[in-house]
Amino acid sequence: MPIGSIVNATTVIVGSLLGILVRQRLPLRIKGIIFQAVGLATLVLGMQMALQTDGNFLILIFSLILGGILGELVRLDERLEAFGEALKVRVKIKDARFTEGLVTAFLIFCVGSMTFVGALNEGLNGDRTLILSKSILDGFTSIVLASVYGIGVMMSALPLFLVQASLTLLASRFQTFFPEIIISQLTAVGGVLILGIGLNLLEIKLIKTVNLLPALAVVVVLTLIFLMGPL
Prior knowledge:
The protein is mostly helical. The chain contains 11 helices and no strands.
């Protein structure tokens, strides 16, 4: 059972509810400085993760390029926006930043090394120490994110659970499919995506982070081909 993923999703929901309550009571200037603080912290997190590429920058670059091309070809951003709007209508949410909050929280919570390693450790040997530690961090982070983005952050708990629980269940059945090099490459690409989120938060440059999401799949394929050889 992916107990760690259940706990993690629960802490995000609870933290988001607290953040939404705080959001309603904050003056505009306080919201503004929180927004900037989140943006700066996101940049630092993204840089730390991106540097885990272990010097394989060509794979990182080509993963982002090919992933971005794929995202643009299928218009991933437009599809996700349409999904978010449809979900807003279905659950009767009027928050203008719902989809942005959902995507931002999902990326921050789901593409870090703690996500991969924590979920895999639970599946491989039943060790939940890392994923439970991540749950606590995500709970506090969701308070801050929800105070900026609102209920979209809370809704990210569902894809968060699905991703982590799937990793845990896959690891329990296919224990040799998750070598450390793939985890580090995924983390590096995820770090670049989070850097893009930070730039968007600070309104420095509009980065289509959603259309870059396929890079997470591309980097696995390129790593298997060029760094690990034939399986």
